[in-house]
Design a protein that fits this description.
Length: about 160
């Protein structure tokens, strides 16, 4: 929908081939890395928010990590797109001229070019520069209760206003 602005990462350029195999993404047969930490029994309350790391995948020095808790990731076992995911899922997809393949940062749970197809160049309006709000929706859902309190407690305040590299 060209009337709605989205923030997605461009992962494929015109003429490139994108393929998604489970949770792995390949562009021109080369895997795009996603570095993860796996944790067990996450707690979302303010009293004890420590996460126990159970496995860490190798990563270049200084890389940021995406955190997954073991029970969540193990249950998923990969991405399943029963009604969507027509583009690049399980087979290479050649990106047409003047179009781009975009993907959300949460690649295991994102609606993006796998569902809508490629994005025409004229629909790309800019580049994300700053995090204006970061909210932990899963933690908030686990708590329920008052909406205003959930917003205040589960906004990632340290990320708000940070520049995007």
């Amino acid at each position: 929908n060209p009337e709605v602005n989205y923030v997605k990462r461009v992962i494929g350029l015109p003429g490139e081939a994108v393929e998604i195999r489970g949770t792995r993404v390949f562009v021109n047969e080369r895997e795009l890395p996603e570095h993860r930490l796996y944790v067990q029994n996450p707690r979302f309350d303010a009293e004890d928010s420590a996460l126990q790391i159970v496995r860490e995948e190798p990563s270049p020095e200084g890389a940021r990590y995406r955190v997954y808790w073991e029970s969540y990731h193990a249950e998923r076992g990969g991405v399943d797109f029963p009604s969507g995911g027509r583009y690049a899922v399980g087979r290479p997809f050649l990106i047409p001229e003047h179009a781009y393949f975009v993907m959300g940062d949460n690649r295991d749970d994102s609606e993006d070019s796998r569902f809508w197809g490629t994005v025409p160049r004229e629909y790309i309006v800019g580049r994300a520069l700053v995090v204006y709000w970061s909210y932990d929706e899963r933690a908030a859902a686990a708590h329920g209760g008052n909406l205003l309190l959930r917003i205040l407690r589960h906004t990632r305040w340290k990320r708000v206003g940070t520049l995007i590299r």
